[in-house]
Amino acid sequence: MIQIDKTKPVMVSGATGYVAGWLVKKLLDEGLTVHAAVRNPDNREKLKVLDELANQSSGTIKYFKSDLLDEGSYAEAMEGCELVFHTASPFTLSVNDPQKELVEPALLGTRNVLEQANRTESVKRVVLTSSVAAIYGDNIDIKNTANGIFTEEDWNTSSSLTHGAYPYSKTLAEKEAWKINREQSRWDLVVINPSLVMGPAVNPQNVTSESYAIIKQIADGTLKAGVPYIGWGVVDVRDVAEAHFQAGFVSTASGRHIVSGHNTTFLGLSNTLLPKYGNAYPIPKKEMPKWLIWLVGPMLNKALTRKYISRNVGYGWKADSKKSIRELGIQYRSLEETVNEMFEQLVEADVL
């Protein structure tokens, strides 16, 4: 059991990120000192929202220049910290060079942060932001699970550099984290495996998460003719941040944690928006048959390869998140609240 001293600073990598923004807010509201590891601490405009969060809280934020690919660059930020949150990792599906844009930042970044934890005597615990993408690669993989449901025991074995490069990068990164953790005995590792993260951002003008691209496609008419039947897990970004916080400070927390509030589908997301926004936006109301997606999908989106379509379209998704409820005390928000508040924020910010 690990006891974290809340008078000591805590480090957050990727502090300007989607999940990290809410985590930093939670830490500051709890009165902690946050060492925010960011690429450019001189970019005051990008850090303005975090400064405002600090000003409205009883906590303190300090910025440190760090880069996922720069070995040793987290040393100053980690100094004196008992708790490290490693949230920094790219989430995008449209890349030109998956090795350089996804695998290297995820794998080398994790190695960089965790090896610095090895060199920093004060560190007692590292909380890693992984993903359910490290648990499965394609929806069809659910056929290989013990009881037709994904659990923390499952690992993604179907992704590769050429098929599902993003899930592949998350799998490699988490496996590397466990390897580094096993090779020492001073700090423990707790992993958060969220499903598709949605909900309002601390800073909606600075979000690059793929979930925002999905919401924009639902709203802008791209999918007006219909959406594919693809099962997804969805979780509110605020619940993911709370899971990170609890993973850091619950002394008995250990291992992996699937953090997912809802087993749903593409159409399930759309349906939550129809009552309020259905008349004002071309939100899809039906599913498109698989044979049609097979024909036109690769022309509409390069991520919709025939292999992806064959292994994902037409398959549901189901995961067991009871461990996060039982051990971290997470109470999940409703899907309607998550999606509608995200959509409303984008409307107000003129992002749509």
From TrEMBL:
Keywords per UniProt: Oxidoreductase
PANTHER family: NAD DEPENDENT EPIMERASE/DEHYDRATASE (PTHR10366), STEROL-4-ALPHA-CARBOXYLATE 3-DEHYDROGENASE, DECARBOXYLATING (PTHR10366:SF564)
Record-linked Pfam families: Epimerase (PF01370)
Source organism (scientific name): Carboxylicivirga sediminis
InterPro entries membership: Epimerase_deHydtase (IPR001509), NAD(P)-bd_dom_sf (IPR036291), NAD(P)_dehydrat-like (IPR050425)
One GO MF term: oxidoreductase activity, acting on the CH-OH group of donors, NAD or NADP as acceptor
Superkingdom of the source species: Bacteria
Residues in NAD-dependent epimerase/dehydratase domain copies: 10-247
Family stated for the protein in its record: Belongs to the NAD(P)-dependent epimerase/dehydratase family. Dihydroflavonol-4-reductase subfamily.
Protein name: NAD-dependent epimerase/dehydratase family protein
